[in-house]
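Hi everyone,

Forwarding the result from last night's run.
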Amino acid sequence: MNYRVITVLLLATLAFSSSILEAAKPNIIVILVDDLGYGDLSSFGAKDLKSPFVDSIVRNGMKFTNFYANCPVCSPTRAALLSGRYQDMVGVPGVIRTHAENNWGYLHPDAVLLPVLLKKAGYHTAIVGKWHLGLESPNIPNDRGFDFFHGYLGDMMDDYYKHRRHGINYMALNRKIIDPPGHATDLFTEWANAYIKEQAKTEKPFFLYLAYNAPHTPIQPPVGWVERVRKREAGIDDKRAKLVALIEHMDDGIGKVLQTVKDAGIEENTIVIFSSDNGGQLNVGANNGPLRDGKQSVYEGGIKVSTAVKWPGVVKAGTTSNLMAMSMDIFPTVCEIADAKIEHTIDGVSFLPTLQGKEQPALRDKWFFRRREGGTRYAGKTIEALRWGDWKILQNSPFEPMELYNLKTDPLEENNLANKNRAQFNKLAAALRKEIQRYGTVPWQKPISE
């Protein structure tokens, strides 16, 4: 046998081995929903709501009771999840919007997003649904590492059926603007299912980031869903009934996605991570359980989110973890699962050991939450919080004094100790100032040169 034949056989063997290794890697689906209250799933305590399909993720996997969003609003949490960094460190301290005068973030060109690393690890990468990290190139999904995009570039839709924001159509298939008929939740479900079916035919593992815009406002469930809730829940008020219907409709879509995974024969090799970008919006009827406040707020109701992970054969079904983790920790967890190498600085920490049933120390000592916003309520300034052990310092309005709570003895944040324990107050305030200085190294507006 000559050397040329040997070389060909060796290359063929290596290619076959590589294919085997890729096939062995699990498919990864991250489902991120929008503005879901901590108490707005039946598996997280809701009594007037039925969410059997998200509940099945909880039942067949691990429920996290102490999981936090990086921010109490949309764009920053998404930036944190996809970068593994505190949102300020990738230029997204606030919501990215259509008009410059009301825009509070710009995804930094140097930010390395999750799909970039997963592609290097052999994955096909896709986002279906809400992007909200840029409305034009170079900050659209296909520019930032995703092989495939079928969804919505913008923040919120003014109508679930018309898919416009400020009269602009932000619905796209990769780089092409499209105008499909139908309720956005149904479309995202349909597109996710089509992607899964197609990828299941290949040997390449896939990463699907499925980002529903439900149950964000407008509270617009399809015809029939509200009446179903009213018939079942005697005495429910109209506002709550509409939100429950919108959530149940979304849950039904998630059920269809889970069924597609099963029907495609890939359920045993697919991990599903479910979470929300922030807490529920109280003035539209959201339920954040016993937590104080909701969306927009750095009190617990704005940042604590229902989260669960299902991974057959790895995550023990029906388990619960009180490990504290946050959105940006999903990034290194997924990378470790996929054997994707992280060769740059991140802030997130993998919670894979917890998923594997192993003991794991606290992921960090200090937990920072921050948001920048406009309007007269915020005036372009920030609100922030720091959790350090049992203590939490926060400023929920840029025009109000900072507050201090001991969450162990006061989980509902009712007893402000700012003037009663100055030692703790000063300790946490100093740590928060230092972190804010770190954030100042990264710009959050579009460079003038662009």
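Residues 26-364 form a domain with the Alkaline Phosphatase, subunit A fold (CATH 3.40.720.10).

Cheers,
N.
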